[in-house]
Amino acid sequence: MLPYNRKLKEPARQLRSDMTDAESRLWARLKQLLGVQFYRQKPLGNFIVDFYAAKAHLVVEVDGGQHFESTQRLADAERTGMLSGMGLRVLRFTNAEVLENTHGVVEEILRMVAAALG
After folding, report:
1. Overall average pLDDT of the 94-103 stretch
2. What is the pTM (predicted TM-score) of this model?
């Protein structure tokens, strides 16, 4: 079982109600792929990940512009390393990728889910 920080329950609820346009668009397509349930704004360890598919051990992050700043890039790399250390694969997409190429993003996630299911 992955670690769960109860202190993140309320912030996660707030994030679910305040999803970005890109997150909302992706959520509409992700709810279930290949019979795999996705969760949105899911607390894992000390993080709240954008989307999580437990059955596929997959985290999907949708990054806004602030993620291109050098300090945020370092923090994202550390976060990805910690999530990978929990046995999770992490896919990152920009808001622009999701909004401009939703189909392509979903196809990439589908490939990762299918590979995880064997």
Report:
1. 95
2. 0.88
